[in-house]
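Thread: quick sanity check before group meeting

JM: Hey all, I'm pulling together slides for Thursday and realized we never actually wrote out the predicted structure for the chain we discussed last week. Dropping the sequence here so it's in one place. If anyone has concerns about the input, flag it before I start.
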Amino acid sequence: MLNIAELYYFSPTGGTKKAGKIFCEGISKNVKTVDLSLRDKAVEKPEGELVVIAVPVFGGRIPAIAAERLNKLEGSGKKAVTLVIYGNRAYEDALLELNNIVTERGFQVAASAALVAQHSMAPEVGKGRPDEQDRRSILEFAGKVLDKLESGSESPVKVPGNYPYKNGMSMLVTPVSLPSCKQCGKCATVCPTGAIQIENGAAITSPERCILCMACVSACPEHARILPPPLQEKMEQMLGALKSVRRENEFFL
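JM (edit): ok, ran it. Output follows.
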């Protein structure tokens, strides 16, 4: 086992962080976590033996705000493991995009994975994942990564994806607040892009800044943030067939 690994994660609803921490448990005695969603905190310089970078997939790409913050890292030749976490639909170009960014920042990608978590907009899709079966497969992968690192192998990691990448997700729609909203400001605090302001007794969300990450919906203590019903219905229609489908995690060494 490594002595310390650093987990850099962007996890608006918690699934990405959960998957990343499972992997780290299997490879290091100690784990330092760095939350890339914090607006007012500078991205810390990696100092551990291994850097694990975990980001969610939004419409087949990684979130632009996560890419922006990763571009502030200096790899300096450090080994990295890249993880994209998706909601049981598809990860398309996201893992290739992440690996290209990480490599350009000077990291050496030792291994990669595409892991499944509960879908943030349609929670019945991938419900409960990562589950115990996922945990076992992720820990098994962590063991193989550790073996590769200890062997000194520098074999390149090839992952699926296309370049130029597909167009990113763009919907000028935002979550809305129900009358039960108490204007506590929690939604504004957790929003990674600063899209929410509490004004005149209401939570006002900028559609130009909102990335539909669902952090505000997940964090609301009153459960008063929801997707607009027409969008929720559309998402459930689009993704409903995936409720009975179990995508498996994919690993790349």
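AS: nice. Residues 70 and 246 are 30 Å apart (CA to CA). Helices lie at 15-25, 64-70, 94-104, 132-151, 186-190, 215-219, 229-239.
JM: adding both to the slides.
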